[in-house]
Amino acid sequence: MKLIADEQILYTSPDPETIFCYTPAILIGDNNRIIVGVDLGGIGTPALDGPKSRSGDGAGNQVRLLLSDDNGKCWRESSSRLPMRHEILFRAGKSLYAMGNAPELVISRSDDNGETWSDPAVLRGDAKRSWHQSSTTPVYRNGRIYLIYEQYNPAGNWWPNIMQYLMSAPENADLCKPENWTFSEAFNGDPIAAISRALSDLKPTGTPGIFEAHLLPISPNCGHLYTEGENSFLIPCRYNSHGLQQGAILKGWENPDGTLEIGLFPGRRKEISLFNIPYPGASLKFHPLYDEVSGMYFLAANQPRSAFGGAGERANRRKLMLWCSLDAVSWQPLGTIAFGPCEKGARNYPQMAFCGEDLLIAVRSGDEHAKNEHDNNLITLHRIKNFRDLIEESGL
Q: At 268, is the pLDDT very low, low, confident or very high (cuts 50, 70, 90)?
């Protein structure tokens, strides 16, 4: 499909063999400031200046914040470097926040539009296994913010035995204080994934599991998934199905007493629950986002090349595409966001942000200097101008 975005390199690893560019995040701050988070990991990170997390991807990770005040023409780094990984950037009240794991679930606040950031505060700690996630976007509703974060299951296998938590807090509260957050009980989808994986698995060494979940509002176009008056959310998840266009969906909801829960959606026949569904690029990290202006859902995800042979999931990270949907389930392709320059030239782990009439996508990327398709050496920014025009062109 046609290329619909431009590309700008924001960050290059100082040592592609030992320091890798992992999860990018993007946020639009005050006065249209663009803020991009760069998550650095690998065995070479101890050589980096500034604090690092106590554990990470190879060694302790470090998040750097890049700022642009001229619509992406020029960039500079924030004065703060954060000892965390898997960062999520978001706004709440008058502050900006960065949430990540170190390996505890931690959070940092900026009260000056991203110039400086507080030392991370611990929201929840667990000495057994660390927390986990990738960049995602919260949902705002009734003066509260809702997020999804994850944790390794201490009772199961290491990968990808990951449990999901739905989180909520008042927007105007100090979100660095643990008492201002409400958590659901952990949702363990591995037993359900194991059942579906036993029926069909094109990758013989694959293990069941859902992870890198996202949170979406449910619009009336979502059929029986939508219930009027219910404070509920759609949770689409990456499914460990290398190369297959298959994901999983969960339901999150808030009870009248303020407690939070995660479970399964009923199917059209209520005795049969929904779980595995066809989903573009869901064998890797993807990013769905709801656009209130058009009432459409947008999706950035990789287009798999093959479910067989070679490096499995790593062989499917080169082509990044954009889709849209009325119901967050049936997706229409709109075009190609990026295509890497070589086999190691990944364009993966996207996160999107609306910036006026444009759509910005922060991407974990590589070139010929990357160690491999997974251990990337670049963070790139991609801009789709007047992106809503693509909806009409698609026929939706």
A: confident
- Rounded distance, CA 266 to CA 38, Å? 38
Size (the chain), residues: 396
β pairing state of 232-239 and 260-263: unpaired
Q: Give the pairing of strands 121-124 and 131-132.
A: unpaired
Q: Is the dihedral of CA 98, 86, 298, 141 positive or negative?
A: negative
SS3 295: coil
Per-residue pLDDT at 127: 58
**In Å, what is the CA distance from 253 to each residue of 108, 135, 233, 235, 243?**
26, 21, 6, 10, 31
φ, ψ at 70 (rounded to 5°): -130, 40
Q: What is the pLDDT of residues 162-189, one digit of tens each?
A: 999 999 999 999 999 999 999 999 999 9
Tell me the two tokens of residue 239: 């499914």
Domain count, the chain: 1
Collect all residues with Cβ–Cβ distance below 8 Å to 280 and sequence separation of at least 6. Answer: 245, 286, 299, 301, 303, 321, 323, 331, 333
Looking at residue 158, its pLDDT comes to 67
User: Would you say residue 1 lies in a domain?
Assistant: no
Name the residue range of residue 182's domain: 6-394
Q: What's 57's domain CATH number?
A: 2.120.10.10
The three-point CA angle 265-353-172 to 5° equals: 75
DSSP line for 141-202: ETTEEEEEEEEE-TTS-SSS-EEEEEEEEETTS-TTSGGG-EEPPPEE-HHHHHHHHHH--S
SS3 content of the chain, % helix, strand, coil (to 5): 10, 45, 45
Residue 190 C-beta-side C-alpha neighbours within 13 Å = 17
* CA-based max dimension of the chain: 57
